[in-house]
What does this fold into?
Amino acid sequence: MRLIAVMPDETQVGSLIDSLKNLGFDRDELIVMDLADEQNQPKPKDANDELSFLKTEREGLWEFGAFSKGIKGLKHDQGILVAVETPKHRAHTVKMLMIQNGATQIIQD
It folds into this structure.
């Protein structure tokens, strides 16, 4: 199961990441991205040169798009996304950490 939190600012994101690390998650298990930066997507021919570009799960080999466009129910276009894959039995704990650290929206998919 994946939980995705929309965080209002970097300070809260740092705190959430620290809390998740204390829970046993590694930083490389998280996807963290600024929604404002994602609005300025690269052109298709430049996509391979962008280090911050993320391919969504639903796209074909030569297609690309914004990670946030593949998240159903996302109501924000500002803030920072923090996505974490978690076992079902830990989902409630992760969700509580997201709430405690100031998430303005939490999506479970």
